[in-house]
Amino acid sequence: MKKSATVKKSAATKETTKEESPSRLIDIKIKDLGDWRGKTLAGVRALIKQAVPDVVEELKWRGVPVWSHDGIICTGETYKSAVKLTFAKGASLKDPSKLFNSSLEGNTRRAIDIHEGVEINADAFKTLIRAAAALNSSKKKPR
Question: How far is 109 from 102, CA to CA, in rounded Å?
């Protein structure tokens, strides 16, 4: 008889409970990463909150942090060699600082891949976050 393997799941990948807010689960995810990716994710998260203080944090799609303001601004996926920030409507945003360096061929999304040791231009990033939030707000349907 075969023994079934058990997989230990991080608290960040479990369903959100009333006691654990999405923000708290993102804290756990960052801590669980325990390397440069966690530090990078924490850094861009802080910049997002500075740019749009009333941003809504969620955890979707098996533990992917999502930042929203009248719609998704961006997601924060972590891979072995990069932290990928995918902007839901990135193709509609001006990017004079050329932060977008991934998913450039699509008609809707754009992404920023941040690799180990690379610093993001904080001011340009916050400007991009504000522009994404403003774009979402401009397309908000009246009630």
Answer: 9
Over the stretch 43-99, which tens digit does the pLDDT of each residue have?
999 999 999 999 999 988 888 999 999 999 999 999 999 999 999 999 999 999 999
Token duo for residue 93: 């945003």
Q: What is the pLDDT of residues 109-140, one digit of tens each?
A: 999 999 999 999 999 999 999 999 999 999 76
Structure tokens at 120: 């993001």
pTM above 0.90, yes or no: no
Tell me whether residue 15 is exposed, middle or buried, using C-beta atoms within 10 angstroms of its C-beta: 0 to 12, 13 to 18, 19 or more.
exposed
- What is the number of domains present in the chain? 1
* Tokens of residue 25, six digits: 């689960």
* Rounded-to-integer distance, Cα 16 and Cα 6, Å: 21
- How many other C-beta atoms can be found within 10 angstroms of the C-beta atom of residue 32? 14
* Domain at 93, CATH number: 3.90.1150.200
